[in-house]
Design a protein that fits this description.
Distance between the termini: 100 Å
Low-confidence stretches: none
Largest sheet: 6 strands, mixed
Oligomer: single chain
Shape: rod-shaped
Amino acid sequence: ASDGVKIVDITPPSVTVTPDPGVITTDGDGLNDATVIHALITDRTTVVEWRLDILDPAGAKVFARPVEYVSTTRVEADLPWDGMASGKRLPGGTYRVVAYATDIGGHAALGEAPLLICDQFMGVGEEGGEKVCVCPDRDNDGYTDMRCGGTDCDDYDRMKHPGAYEDCTADMNCDGKPVICDTGKKCLDGY
């Protein structure tokens, strides 16, 4: 027996996705080398399918979790990810984690969150309360690492940096010119 009341679902699922931490560094030091992506999908009726993609800064898909078919009002998943694609480290940049879901009424929704990947030689800093990739100054000589856009040719040696005094043993001032010493041990930069 029916009382003639028909319930119509006109709302899409609620989809949230949160990477924790929201920054991956690919330097292999054991800190922030991977993230866990938490996906939460709820619907008043029934979620029937969902999937998750990670898109690079240009919008190309670099990771895809296949579609999962379900029949529930709540989907919760924790997915570990190490910032790798096809066995290679991805370049630094702001990536997008996107979860998609569809309910039994055919209503689709998505949730997305940024995920920052810092290159191998980058560090993590803050600007305006947001995490950002920064080029470090590991030896605290006032010059940042050349490998990430700075000017310090050896960021682990305080004595090597632009403007440093040449000591006749190596390029101390990072100009790339050979160091030549005359017989009096006076250093000349270049030829």
